[in-house]
C-alpha cells in the first residue's frame, strides 16, 4: 500500500530528450518508444518536454560550440544548444550497435562537452544546475556498458545524476526483435517499465530539488575564483 503522497510542484521544469537513432524521420525508432514512456510521465506533471532526433539535423563533428568556426561549412548544433541551455533535465537516449552507443549518441556527447568550459550565472561550469539520465534500446547485450559511458560523461561535464538514472530494453540475449516489433514483449516488459518510471521520477525529484535550491551551492567549485587564488579549504603542503 502506498503511504507516500504524490509530490507536486514540477510545473515549469523543462526536459529535452536526444534520440541517437541512426534512422532519419519519419522512419520509426524503437528508442522513441521508450522515450515516450518517460515524456508522458513528465508531461503529466506539467513539465515541458522536447525531443530531438540528432540524425535529422546537420550537426558537425567536433568539440567546439560552433564548428563553422573550425573548418565546417554548416553546423546546426548552435541552433539546437539553447534547448540544452534552458533545460533542467537532459535525457540521452539511443540504440546499441556492436555493443556500444551509436555514432549519433557519441557525437551528441562530444558537442555537449564543447560547452563544458562555459560558466553559468553562479560562476560554475555551465551544466551544474542540470540533471542527466539515459535510455538505451537494442536487441543484443550492452545496456549497462552504454549507460555507464553516457552517465559518466554527463557527470564529468557537470550534470547531476540521481539514483537509477538509466533504463533500457534489449530482449533475450542474441539478435532478435526490436523494442517496437510486434511480439517483442518490449512495451509489456515490467522490468523496463518499472526502471523507466523510476528513472523519470528520480530525474524530476532531483531537478526540482536543484531548481528550488538555486542549483548546486557555489562554494568550492568556482573555476575563476580558483584561478584567482581562492583554495576553498584545500590544504596545500607547499605553503606550510
Quote the distance from N terminus to C terminus. Answer: 59 Å
Q: Name the beta content range.
A: 5-15%
Give the beta-strand count. 6
Mean pLDDT: 94
Largest sheet: 6 strands, mixed
The residue ranges in which pLDDT falls below 50 over 5 or more consecutive positions are none
What is the global morphology? globular
How many distinct helices? 6
Tell me the structural class: alpha/beta
Helix content: 25-40%
Radius of gyration using CA atoms only: 19 Å
In N-to-C order, the SSE pattern is EHEHEEHEHEHH
Q: Which labels suit this protein?
A:
single chain, 240 residues, alpha/beta, 6 strands, 14% strand, globular
Brief overview:
The protein is of the alpha/beta class and 240 residues long. Helix content is 32%, strand content 14%. 36% of the residues are buried.
General description of the model:
This protein is of the alpha/beta class and 240 residues long. Helices cover 32% and strands 14% of the residues. It has 6 helices and 6 strands, in the order E-H-E-H-E-E-H-E-H-E-H-H. The chain has helices at 30-44, 77-85, 103-113, 143-156, 190-213, 223-227; strands spanning 14-19, 48-53, 89-97, 100-101, 131-137, 166-169. Strands 1, 2, 3, 4, 5 and 6 form a 6-stranded mixed sheet that branches. Strand 1 (14-19), helix 1 and strand 2 (48-53) form a beta-alpha-beta unit. Helix 1 (30-44) crosses helix 5 (190-213). The radius of gyration is 19 Å and the shape is globular. The relative contact order is 0.16.
